[in-house]
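Whiteboard transcription, Tuesday session. T.W. wrote the structure tokens on the left side:
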């Protein structure tokens, strides 16, 4: 009897448990159905797919004026440097270089000019003194010659011996006079030579002074046209990898260094950096959608105008990278665009027409498989799909879905709850 009662209790308990599980399953089914009904969905459709590649770069000007440190100055120390981005007018000061050395040269050469003038005055005074003495010597020699001539005319009243002596004295005095006159010619040549030597010294001193003064003027570097100043990197200040800092006040530069640029803002383009593996995907004429980080409220139309034919080695790590450059025309014009603004472009590298598409949000991974959740009645079933290319938020479907199917944009709760789903893979 007790055994019979025990069996009846067990049977009753089992029946109650079965009924409770049935109600729970029905409740869960209703909850899943209500939850899945609210999922965002999208239809599977036929359409065109544009394949894009995102590349980054900077806004650059294709035309600009570069401002250099003077080549004729050896000591280039920057005292003042304008800030990058400063708008200037033609004639405004962009940078000032220390002119102490050139000012010292001006003073030194002015002293040399004065010294040359003093030497000239001294030489002229010496020449005047010599000329006066020469005139006295010539006058005395002429007097002696005339006296000797008179003595030779006394031949009738003096002896033959005395007459011969008188003729010898005359010949000697005449030779002496001739030598003095010849010395005048040589002395004039010597005077010209002395004065020319000092004149050359003075001329060189004047030229050096003029050059130093010109250099002083060149040490104040001014804008040749209206525009925006871009201060260039000081490559000698670079420590290790990375971009060096731009020139600033106090930096030591070098003769002929490129200090700044004034770009032509009418020639702005986007200069993109293209990795070696992506070089073959970019071609001239491709369209692009350009976004400039500093102008977030709009996008620009772009078109690839040029691609570099050789790679540039970039040593920002090891191994060094090989990068190409591509230039994209940007339109329409915008007064807010400035050189060196960061930007990126979505290049249209390929366009597929008439392909099956779903939003990329509708593609999921489940146990290593690519799946989509397809609506079947009130529920969603998991379906394995094969996808192709992606672009602009859309994914190409190669198999597994038909045009007109509806797919979920979020994974249903049934996938996480473990509730039964139809067509699971």
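and on the right, the sequence the group agreed on:
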């Amino acid at each position: 009897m007790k055994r019979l009662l025990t069996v009846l209790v067990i049977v009753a308990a089992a029946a109650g448990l079965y009924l409770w599980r049935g109600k729970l399953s029905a409740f869960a089914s209703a909850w899943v159905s209500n939850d899945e009904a609210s999922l965002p969905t999208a239809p599977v459709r036929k359409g065109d797919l544009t394949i894009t590649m995102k590349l980054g770069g900077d806004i650059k000007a294709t035309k600009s004026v570069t401002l250099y440190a003077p080549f004729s100055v050896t000591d280039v120390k920057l005292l003042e440097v304008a800030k990058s981005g400063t708008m200037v007018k033609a004639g405004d000061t962009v940078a000032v270089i220390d002119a102490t050395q050139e000012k010292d040269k001006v003073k030194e050469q002015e002293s040399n000019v004065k010294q040359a003038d003093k030497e000239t005055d001294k030489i002229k005074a010496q020449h005047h003194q010599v000329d006066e003495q020469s005139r006295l010597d010539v006058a005395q020699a002429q007097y002696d010659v005339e006296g000797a001539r008179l003595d030779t005319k006394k031949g009738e009243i003096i002896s033959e011996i005395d007459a011969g002596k008188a003729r010898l004295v005359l010949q000697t005095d005449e030779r002496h006079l001739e030598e003095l006159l010849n010395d005048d010619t040589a002395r004039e040549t010597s005077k010209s030579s002395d004065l020319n030597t000092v004149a050359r010294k003075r001329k060189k001193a004047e030229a050096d002074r003029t050059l130093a003064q010109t250099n002083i003027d060149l040490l104040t570097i001014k804008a040749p046209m209206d525009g925006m100043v871009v201060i260039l990197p000081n490559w000698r200040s670079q420590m290790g990898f990375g971009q060096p800092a731009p020139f600033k006040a106090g930096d030591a530069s070098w003769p002929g260094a490129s200090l700044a640029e004034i770009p032509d803002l009418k020639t702005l383009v986007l200069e993109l950096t293209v990795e070696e593996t992506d070089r073959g995907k970019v071609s001239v004429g491709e369209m692009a959608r350009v976004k400039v980080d500093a102008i977030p409220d709009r996008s620009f139309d772009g078109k690839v105008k040029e691609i570099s034919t050789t790679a540039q080695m970039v040593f920002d790590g090891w191994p060094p990278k090989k990068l190409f450059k591509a230039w994209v025309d940007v339109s329409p014009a915008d007064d807010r665009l400035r050189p060196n603004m960061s930007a990126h472009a979505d290049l249209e590298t390929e366009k597929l027409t008439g392909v099956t598409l779903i939003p990329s949000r509708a593609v999921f991974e489940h146990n290593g498989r690519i799946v989509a959740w397809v609506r079947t009645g009130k529920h969603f079933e998991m379906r394995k799909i094969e996808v192709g290319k992606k672009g602009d938020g859309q994914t190409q479907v190669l198999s597994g879905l038909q045009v007109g199917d509806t797919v979920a944009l979020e994974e249903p709760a049934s996938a996480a709850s473990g509730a039964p789903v139809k067509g699971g893979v």
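Someone added at the bottom: The helical segments are 2-37, 100-152, 160-218, 413-417.
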